[in-house]
Amino acid sequence: MYITGIGRTKFGILSESIAELAYKAMYEAISDCPISIVDIGAIYVSNFLGSRYMKQLHFNSVISSLLPELRIPIIGIETACASGASAFYQGLLALSRFENVLVIGVEKMTDATKMKSTENLAMAGDRKLDQEQGIIFPANYALIAQQHMMRYGTTHGDLSAVSFKNHKNGNLNPLAHFNYKKVTQDMISKSPVISSPLNLFDCSPISDGAAAVVLSRYRKSSRDVEVIGSDLATDYISLVQRTEITSFTATRIAALNAFNQARLRPKDLDIVEAHDCFTIAELVAMEDIGICKSGESKDWVRKEKTALNGDLPINTDGGLKADGHPIGASGIAQIYEIVTQLRGEAGKRQVDSARIGLTHNVGGVGGTAVVHILRGLSS
Amino acid sequence: MYITGIGRTKFGILSESIAELAYKAMYEAISDCPISIVDIGAIYVSNFLGSRYMKQLHFNSVISSLLPELRIPIIGIETACASGASAFYQGLLALSRFENVLVIGVEKMTDATKMKSTENLAMAGDRKLDQEQGIIFPANYALIAQQHMMRYGTTHGDLSAVSFKNHKNGNLNPLAHFNYKKVTQDMISKSPVISSPLNLFDCSPISDGAAAVVLSRYRKSSRDVEVIGSDLATDYISLVQRTEITSFTATRIAALNAFNQARLRPKDLDIVEAHDCFTIAELVAMEDIGICKSGESKDWVRKEKTALNGDLPINTDGGLKADGHPIGASGIAQIYEIVTQLRGEAGKRQVDSARIGLTHNVGGVGGTAVVHILRGLSS
After folding, report:
1. What is the ipTM of this complex?
2. Considering only CB atoms, which chain A residues are within 8 Å of B61?
3. What is the structure's pLDDT at B128?
4. What are the CA-CA distances from residue B307 to residues A204, B102, B181 (Å)?
5. How many CB atoms lie within 10 A of CB A146?
6. Exposure string for A93-125, b = 16+ CB within 10 A, e = fewer
7. Residue of B nearest to A367 (CA)
8. pLDDT score of A379
9. What is the pLDDT of residues B213-265, one digit of tens each?
10. Interface contact A79, partner B, CB < 8 A
11. Which of A148, A283, B101, B338 has its CA 20 to 30 A from that of A275?
12. What single-letter DSSP state applies at residue A91?
């Protein structure tokens, strides 16, 4: 199974409609590969909050309206913030029936007020156990951060280092939400507290954007990237239902299965896109994916091993933190970045001789996790 | 590909929570088949309006919370009112990877006010082209009915006859939303106008309910039903974007492809579940599926050919009209009914020697259509 085309819009506060954003990303993904739109057998659409932000559901039919030459299966997928990678996962399954499949993820979030966004995003948590108790997402991840600090000696400086690295990478990404201004250690440490110990710069932003990929059963060009591992796992939706909160079972299962499929181990990775909705999430992801042992992610960060020129660069596009987090698109944008890197087309942020990459996309506070392992084919 | 287990709740105004309804239907589907819940490789979840009615998204993780012994892929599917059959369609595709797949559809709608329901349901239509113009769903289908009457001489009596038949069938279905009272021709014709020419009895109700099926790659028991045709097609979301409104292109494509896969023709069908969200929709479906020619559905209805003892019984469970329309569950309840009939387990509403059945599930006003053809295996 191969990724043969990729496309995305800039992420940020955008003026285009959600349909325009989706069209742009799909058009670019098709233009990027040797096949034409009429060769596509099915389309998977990832969108999380259309029903809340713009009173639009049935988004698969909105996409169909944009492509009147096709009357093929187009299907909407929703697994909260993991919707993008889940749609990609479905796309891979659909290659059993179709030779080529398009996956499009899109979200339009910046039209709403901040209060509305908090309420909307909380729907990724349990209505009774989380929402009605006021456990919004920054609070969920703050609880995880507190436990991680207490148990492993992780400091707020370690969290800030993740943010600093991702903003630095974002500055090299022309499509990132935040790339227009240098983010300093001082800006990060002095940013307002959102939910202690998380400050503003520990949190990913509210963004608009779209990303798309074209999948093929057979190799189509020398720029193709092979998908060699793919798994999706689920867990209790709420932290209060779990015995362990500094580790996500769903990530551990999905990563283990994906590595087994790929017949690889974490040390074989050259580059990773980890779900950093909050800085602490990137540290927990490193441990759950198996990049390091539990509690050791802070040591990696202190040694700058995950920097662009480190042993294992993580979130080279800036991650959700700096690239942005238009939810339905985020999981697909991770694939976009790994493909770009494995093709050797990442420009200023190119990682030398990257051959194996991993993407990790999470729904809610670990209720869903999706891991993909990709291999570059170009010499 | 086989359906080996089915389960559903009663449809109607129910006191259970959405999670309780889902659990009940899944438990019954598993209890109905030779395999155990731990043999399930993946679960597809169909829900349309959880984000609006109960501020709950990420429903795949809610389902995961109910099944702590499983940490498998669970994925949410949404294609408006066709979500149920779309999840079933995904379940079939997933049999390429998993031996057994569970599909669960659920909706909880009766807690909201009528006004809220109208607004929520309108999200299956285009935000700008439909919602902002006030083209709510009864209005959409009224436009279709008006055209159908003008073009083909279909009368309001023909529409009422569909309602009368479906309520009569619903009275034989212990799980139907409406089964407790005899619906007379007089009640139908004197019911208030909703959107002319559609009266209250031309419209399906707002219901709660859940339905589930277990799919297997291999035959598991003598009660299994085989899936021999499956297609999903899409179209422009809004009627105003189309040149033809008395026929749904998506239904025509999905039906044609499903018949080709099954190597059957419409005249081979013994029983049909057609998407009768409004009475006119059942007539249009008959024509689009190919049961009769365009404009001839009224003749079939006048001759009572689609009645329980007619040539081709349609909506033997009462259809969306009388069985109810808990949106995420409806497409799966159609499968439930056909399986029940093909197994010969439909009790008072059993159709004699039914062997081939078809289900037809529509999203919005034909923006999505899904057709499945099933074959009974019992002697």
Report:
1. 0.96
2. 79-80, 234-237, 363-364, 367-368
3. 94
4. 58, 32, 19
5. 18
6. bbbeebebbbbbbbbbbbebeeeebeebbbbbb
7. B61
8. 52
9. 999 999 999 999 999 999 999 999 999 999 999 999 999 999 999 999 999 99
10. yes
11. B101
12. H
